[in-house]
């Protein structure tokens, strides 16, 4: 898993100089629309959004929907446009359902950048992907296969059935499992809606209904901690292993307590920062986002110095940078 994650994204990262802000910059009024307001992961991204906003002297607001649905996001999109926001930074709950509202926003001159979870290309300028989708899917497969001992039944605990990012990752994971671990079978998929209680109930259901499972793959920061916590406090500890994507602060207990949990993630704070800076480059520096273009990083970027626009699973995208695999030995070095 480590090797795969280390390889994620490196192909598209290039070292060049930092970009200088344009003098004729328009004042940015930025609405950050996450999948659901209460998710800690998006609140961590919001810290980076605010850091970029401060640098750019922009007005920024966190417009977190109270439901994890496309409809709730459409309401936020329309309200933001009405409220005079000229940039939307959005992590989508659905690939297609937001596109009409986003197209209408773009027609009115609003710059739309998706991050974390994409919409179809017509709805946005560019997608800032956390890491290569294929790399994430492969890493999930490798980790699950390792935890299952190379063969056996596993299950998936996802977010919502329509989440663009989870669906792309799961598709790549399944491809990798079929090609590399034909004896590892995904026997069930459940949806915890990125909510702690639902994710706990779904984990319990997965284990009860599928007593043969040896691993649960949770590519969700909320689902993974709910699953790991449930397993750690149940008779399944040491029999069912949890892996996926999670915040180090949430996961350190279960990585270290003998539950055998595995987790990885990217720098979420910098993710929010980069999404805003890219929106600013598009709006104020006439930055091209065509495949092949190179976007120079702003000076507060904690990752790479520039990013190349590549063709992703949905459309043109740039990669934030590599993910980190958290282990017993390194997890205490991270605080998010
Ligand atoms: C949850 C969200 C988000 C995903 C992370 C890993 O917070 O579903 O989209 O990227 O998990």
Topology:
Elements: H1 2-7, E1 13-14, E2 29-33, H2 40-56, E3 59-62, H3 70-82, E4 87-90, H4 99-107, E5 111-115, E6 126-129, H5 133-147, E7 152-158, H6 164-180, E8 184-191, H7 196-209, E9 213-218, H8 221-232, E10 241-244, H9 248-256, E11 263-265, H10 268-284, E12 294-296, E13 306-308, E14 310-311, E15 316-319, E16 324-326
Parallel strand pairs: 2-3, 2-4, 4-5, 5-6, 6-15, 7-8, 7-9, 9-10
Antiparallel strand pairs: 1-13, 11-16, 12-13, 14-15
Helix pairs in contact: 2-10, 5-6, 7-8
What are the salient characteristics of this protein?
2 domains, 10 helices, Rossmann fold, disordered N terminus, 336 residues, 16 strands, 38% helix, 7-stranded mixed beta sheet
The kinds of small molecule bound in this structure are: alpha-L-rhamnopyranose
Counted by DSSP, the helix tally is: 10
Instruction: Determine Rg (CA atoms, Å).
Output: 19 Å
The fraction of residues assigned to DSSP E strands is: 15-25%
> What is the succession of H and E elements?
HEEHEHEHEEHEHEHEHEHEHEEEEE
- CATH class call of the largest domain: Alpha Beta
Described by its quaternary structure, the protein is: single chain
CATH architecture of the largest domain: 3-Layer(aba) Sandwich
**Strand sequence of the main sheet, in spatial order?**
3-2-4-5-6-15-14
N/C terminus separation = 21 Å
Examine the coordinates and then state which fold CATH places here, giving the name of the CATH topology of the largest domain: Rossmann fold
Tell the overall outline: elongated
- Give the CATH H-level superfamily of the largest domain: Response regulator
Structural class: alpha/beta
Low-confidence sequence ranges: 1-23
- Extended strand count: 16
């Amino acid at each position: 898993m480590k090797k795969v994650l280390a390889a994620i994204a490196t192909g598209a990262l290039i070292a060049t100089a930092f970009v200088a802000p344009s003098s004729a910059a328009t004042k940015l009024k930025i609405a950050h629309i996450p999948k659901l307001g209460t998710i800690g992961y998006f609140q961590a991204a919001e810290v980076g959004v605010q850091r970029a906003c401060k640098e750019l002297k922009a007005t920024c607001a966190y417009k977190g929907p109270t439901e994890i649905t496309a409809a709730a996001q459409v309401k936020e999109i329309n309200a933001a446009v009405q409220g005079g926001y000229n940039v939307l930074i959005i992590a989508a709950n659905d690939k297609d359902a937001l596109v009409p509202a986003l197209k209408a926003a773009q027609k009115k001159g609003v710059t739309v950048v998706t991050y974390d979870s994409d919409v179809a290309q017509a709805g946005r300028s560019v997608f800032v992907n956390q890491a290569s989708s294929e790399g994430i899917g492969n890493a999930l497969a490798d980790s699950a296969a390792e935890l299952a001992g190379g063969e056996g039944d596993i299950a998936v605990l996802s977010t919502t059935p329509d989440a663009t990012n989870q669906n792309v990752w799961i598709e790549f994971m399944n491809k990798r499992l079929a090609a590399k671990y034909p004896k590892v079978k995904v026997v069930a998929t459940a949806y915890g809606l990125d909510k702690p209680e639902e994710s706990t109930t779904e984990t319990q259901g997965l284990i009860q209904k599928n007593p043969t499972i040896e691993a649960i793959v949770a590519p969700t920061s909320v689902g993974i901690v709910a699953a790991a916590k449930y397993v750690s406090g149940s008779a399944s500890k040491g029999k069912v292993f949890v892996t996926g994507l999670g915040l180090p602060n949430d996961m350190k207990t279960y990585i270290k307590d003998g539950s055998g949990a595995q987790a990885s993630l990217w720098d979420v704070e910098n993710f929010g920062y980069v999404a805003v800076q890219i929106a600013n480059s598009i709006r104020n520096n006439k930055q091209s986002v065509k495949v092949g273009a190179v976007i120079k990083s702003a000076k507060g970027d904690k990752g790479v110095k520039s990013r190349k626009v590549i063709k992703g699973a949905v459309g043109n995208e740039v990669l934030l940078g590599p993910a980190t695999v958290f282990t017993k030995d390194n997890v205490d070095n991270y605080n998010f």
